[in-house]
Every structure is written in C-alpha cells, then in structure tokens.
Amino acid sequence: PLRYISKFRAFVKHEAEKNKSQWKTMGPAKVAVPSPNDFLQKHSKEPKLAPQKKEQDDKKSLPLSVPRRTYRPVIQIKKNFINKNAVAVITGAPKKPRPFCVDTRQGDKYLLEPSGLVPKYIKKKNYGVIPKYVTRRNEEMKREEEEYQARVLEELKKKAMKCLSDEEKTNILKALKKNWEEINRAYQGLPVLTDTRYKKMHKEELELKLKQLEHDIEAIEKHKGVYIAN
Q: What are the UniProt keywords, alphabetically (predicted)?
C-alpha cells in the first residue's frame, strides 16, 4: 500500500516557512529619526494650569458708600503706662515676706511651708479618715474570707460521718442477729470429726464470722450514737 500523506502537509510547510527567522531583524528595520528641533525643553513635562478667566469690569468695581451721620470714628487714646504702674504700686497693699527657716550658722535657709514643719495637714477635713480604697479592699477581703469559710464548712459537711437514727439502728441489729443465727445454725450442723483440711478451714471461717458479728452487735448495743462514714 502507498504511504499515508496528510492533506495538511502543504499548509503546515507554508506556515513554518512564513515565520522563519523573524528574530534576526531585532525590531523594525527602519526607525524614524527624531528631528533636532524637537528637543526636550525645561519644565515641558510639568502640569500646566488652565488659564484664568478675566473677571468682568462690573464685578471689579465696588459700590461707593457714604458714612452715616451717626458714624463716630474710633480714636486711639495713648496710655501712660509709667504713671499707671506708679499709681498701682502706691495704692497697692505691701507684699508680705515669705517665711524662711535657717538651719545652719552660715545662713542657709529654705522655705518654711513646704518643709513639713508647718502643721497644715492636720487641719484638713479628711485628716485621720480611712481612705475609700482601703475600706473597699478590707470589705473585699472580709467577703472572700467568709466565702472561703462557707466553702470549707460545706466540704466538711460532705465528708462528715452520718449519725444513725433509732430506726436504722434497730434494723441493723435485727439483720446482724439474723445473720448470727444463720451462721450459728451452719456452725452447729458441722460434723464432730474434722479430719480434712477443708472441714478445718470451713469451721475456722464460721468461727471468725460469728466473732465479728458478736463484736458488731455488742458495739451497737453499747453506744447510743453510732456514726458511719459516707
């Protein structure tokens, strides 16, 4: 059979030769040379403002105004500050000297008021009064202490032992005596001869249970108040 030939072979060949070696030019072959008259001038790239519109002559002219009859111009009166200051000094009260305190023989002195020697703080209205923040802090501490004590008491009540009532005590005694009778009946029914190890262990177990029950019954009957832990 004949070799297969695509019908698009001529088209592909034409497209390959069409764009072949386009990189050799490195840009357009001919470039327009700038004119020497179009050189860059100073401030040519700065933005230019639009030209201001000339105002009309009617807007420029202001209406003439005539002062009224009641108009009185303000007359500036010159003041003599030297005489004014002299009168203020003569008529004013004399300045009181500030008290000083001298503590060395050389005459070193300092102001008496900020030194702490003048008892001016004890004359205050709130002298000796407890500050509000101290009172508020003491109240908060007291409240926290009460909450802590209440929480501790609640925990102790939860962990405290429970006291049995008379009815519960009677019911427990009846149950213990019933168990003692049952175990005693089983103990009385043991064979006389205990020749095996199992018989000896069973007998010792029943005796221990009887002793424990007798001890519990005696303890409950002996004491009026019985407490049990939760």
A: Cell projection, Cytoplasm, Cytoskeleton
Determine the straight-line distance between the first and last CA of the chain, rounded to whole angstroms. Answer: 106
Mean pLDDT across 114-139: 87
The two structure tokens encoding residue 187:
């103990």
| pTM attached to this predicted model | 0.33
pLDDT of residue 28: 62
The secondary structure of residue 114, as a DSSP letter, is G
**How is 72-116 classified by DSSP, letter by letter?**
-PPPPPPP-HHHHHHHHHHHSPPPPPPPEEE-STT--EEESGGGT
How would you classify residue 107: left for phi > 0, otherwise alpha for psi between -120 and 50, otherwise beta? left
- The total number of residues shown for the chain amounts to 230
Residue from 201, 182, 199, 179 nearest 190 by CA: 199
Query: 113: Cβ–Cβ under 8 A, 6 or more apart, which residues?
Result: 98, 99, 120
Q: Which pLDDT score is estimated for 151?
A: 92
